[in-house]
Each structure stands twice: as structure tokens, then as C-alpha cells.
Amino acid sequence: MSTRVLPTIGGGVEERLTRALAMRWPWIGASGALLIAASAQAGFDDRFLTSIAIVVPVAFAVRFPRTAAVVATAAALGWFFPQGYPIPVAAGAGLMVVYGVAAYRLRAVDIGVVGALFLVNAVSPFNGSDAGAATYLLLAVVAGALGFGRLLRSRSAIISEHEALAVAHMSALREHLLLTDRTAIARELHDVVAHHISHIAIQAETARYTTPDLPELAATRLAAIGESARTALTEMRTILRVIRSPASQPEGTGRGQPESTLAPRPGLGQLDALVEAARGHGTPVAVTVGGPAAPIPADIDLVAYRVIQESLTNARRHAPGAEVDVAVDRAPGLLRLTIHNGSRGPVGSTDGTGLGLVGMRERVEAVGGTLRHGPVPDGGFTVVAELPLRQDR
């Protein structure tokens, strides 16, 4: 149970007061001070015993509000030490503190029971004395303390609700800004990248039919270039559709159109097509698949496909003509990918930004996997990715 009594409000005196009242020592000190004041007014007669039973609960009212309210009620109504009214002023102040804290912390039904007891006591005192101004004054004091505690509780609830609304507003604003940025990125990608890829596809197809005496191998390569460009355009348009409009995401993400409106995400099921495309570009590829067949989560399947795809692209760029070995090993709870290419060819490109490897690492780490890559003694390059298949990753 929380030890806060006042609502948490940032800044100023109120915040410092809230922190102070959250500790136990201020309450113990207040209880002691009220007890001294009660003894100074009432001496050490029966009213002082009643004052003790009323004031001591102030020390633990925050931690045990129900117990404090029960003890203070029994003492104020004369169930412990029957005597006439009025009780000492300090004891009345302690009674207000106990009921203010109780009204803030307890349920409405508990507060209703306390108020009903003092209402009955005002009309017919439980200690056997006659009803009078003192009993009605006691009722007014208790009702005021209970009302103040409930108002403070309502204020705290309103402030918490406002804070939650502010957080929700900021979250909605961030999401709106994110969607705006995504739309701008999608527009730039479509206007720049799609434009140039379309030109590549058109020029490759045009070259096949306008170049006289074109060798068969060159025609095959140009056809492969055109096909790769068209595939890239198709995948990019699918991604751009999702970026531009989150409502176009498939069902299962909680938004929009059915999954059939989008092409299926690539995975290891398309590994053969990916390898054939690499071979068509002049890269000899050998594939080894080991381990028991087991279902692979969709996100892991996509990451595995992208890792192999990026590795084949890097091998073609930096070691053209070198043989590439792709090993896919399934172990219990783990999918291991090993892609190794031989030494660089004589015309291999050595420049590059390295963003492909960075993106590969980000994809792998996003699903809880690990990625290692680097040159090997034979002059080649190896990429090893380990992807967890656990559902609780």
C-alpha cells in the first residue's frame, strides 16, 4: 500500500510537502505534539486517556488507515473511556487528521460507516450523556475532515487523469509526426529510387531488342537485369504502400485490409528463387540445408532471407565470380546461417559504405539474434547469423 497522502504535483512547496508527508517521522512527531498539547489542556484525567487513544493513531494513519480510524472512532465515541464532552482541542485536531487521511485512503463505504456512527452519536450519544452542542460539534468536525479527505482524493484522481491525457496527447502527436515523416520518405523514395529503377528496367529490355547481333549470354544477362529491376520495383511499392498508409497493413496487426491485398513477405521458402537469381548474375552458389524441419516464426523467416540476400549481393559486388556457400542449419531453438564466399576477384569493388552490414546486424539483433562477420584466412569473407526460434525470445 502506498504511503502517499497528497497527490503528486510537480514543483514548489506542494511537492516538497508531499515528499515529507510520505515519511513516517512527521506523523510520529505530529502525534507527539498533539499529545503534549492535550495534556496541557486536560491534565491527566480521563479525558487525557481518551486523547491518547485518539492522537496516537495519527502516527500510523498513513500506513494503517483503517486501524487508525477504528481506534480513533472507538475513543471519540467513549467506547474505551466513557466520559462527557467536550474532548480536548488537540484531540479534536488529531481526530480531524485521522479522518482526513482515512477518507483519502479508504473506500466510500468505510467513510459512510464512520459518518453514520457520529450522526447517531449526535442524536443519542453512545456514552450515555445527553445530546447537545458538543455532540453536534463533534459530528461537524468529523464530517468536515471526511469531506476534506474525499475532496483531496478526487483532486488527486483528476490530476492523474489529466496527466494520463497529456501523455496520450503527446503519444498521438509523436505518432502523427512519425506518419508525416514516413509519408515524406515514401514520397522521396518513389520519386527518386523508383524513377531510376524503372529506367534500368526499360533500358535493359530495350537493349535486348535494339542491339543487333547481341550474344545469347548478353541477352540473358540483360533479361536478368530487367527482371531484377521489376522485382525491386514490386517490393519497393509494397513497402511504400505500408509506409504511406498504416491502415493498409494486413489483418493480424489490428489494422485495415486483408492480407491478400499485399504480396507475401519473402522467407526461406523463396530461397531457391533467390539462389537462382544470384546464379543468373554469374555468382556460383552452393546451398546446404541441415537439421530437422520445423516451423519458423514469420519475423525470423524474413530476417533469414534478408541476411542471405544481402550476403549474396555483397559477394557479387566485392568478390565477383567467387563461389558462395550458403549453409542453413536448424537446431532446437536456433536457426544458424553461414554464408561464405571465396577470395575477391581481380575486378572486385572495394568501395562501399558498409550500410548493408549495419542493416543486417540491426535486423538480426531486433529479433534477439547475434551476427558475426569478417574476412577469413583464405581471403574470403564469412557471415554467421544465429537466430532464436523460441517463442519467448
UniProtKB/TrEMBL annotation:
Any GO CC annotation of this UniProt entry: membrane
SUPFAM superfamilies per UniProt: ATPase domain of HSP90 chaperone/DNA topoisomerase II/histidine kinase (SSF55874)
Pfam families: HATPase_c, HisKA_3
Keyword Zinc: no
Transmembrane annotation, as ranges: 25-44, 51-79, 85-102, 133-152
EC number: 2.7.13.3
Superkingdom to which the source organism belongs: Bacteria
Signal peptide: none
Keywords, sorted A to Z: ATP-binding, Kinase, Membrane, Nucleotide-binding, Phosphoprotein, Transferase, Transmembrane, Transmembrane helix, Two-component regulatory system
Gene Ontology molecular function terms on file: ATP binding; phosphorelay sensor kinase activity; protein dimerization activity
Region (Disordered): 244-267
Keyword Transport: no
Domain Histidine kinase/HSP90-like ATPase: 299-391
Catalyses which reaction(s): ATP + protein L-histidine = ADP + protein N-phospho-L-histidine
Annotated protein name in UniProt: histidine kinase
Species whose genome carries this gene: Parafrankia colletiae
